[in-house]
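Mods, move this if it's the wrong board.
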Amino acid sequence: MSRRARPSHGSEWRMGPSSSRSGAERSLEERVTVVAYATMAYWYYRWDWGESVALDGLARVSHIPGVETFLLTETDRWVKETGAGQINRFGPARCLVARHRESPDDQHASFLRRLARQYAEAPRQDGVLLLEPPSNVIYVDTLYGEPALLVELARLFGDESLQSLAADLALGYASQLQDEESGLMAHYRDLSQETG
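Not the wrong board. Structure tokens:
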């Protein structure tokens, strides 16, 4: 993917908290604020699981100055960049759902309905959704966001089929990635490879 210029989100969050105290001497709130500012300083030039996790974390601390503006900017950018094309499933959808709940918006509702439809129509194999373009490699990272997002979309739109899909996906990924003996999850698996 091509890199693009870093977005400007205003100087209020770039400065971050100033303190001469070491990290251990700071209060939990100060340390969380430092992490939030560092997270906002990341170059969000594409969307992937990690970026979505970062924005979900920032949404929990939106009271910190500059965080809410940052979240609004990034969710708007994701919606605008997608246009009418295929939606990148790893964008900040959970943040957009929360934002839409607080302040309903027809454009966001339409976008989230398209995303829900895209999930419902996505290619599947052995109980899991395949990545676009269809790939036989699956990742445990998917378990973080996709089932939970589908439950949120189901609640938002009153669509029980999305909740069923969420449960099916969670079980499907677990059956493909979890080691029966240890209970640990593999990071990824190529479904085209035979397991022995």
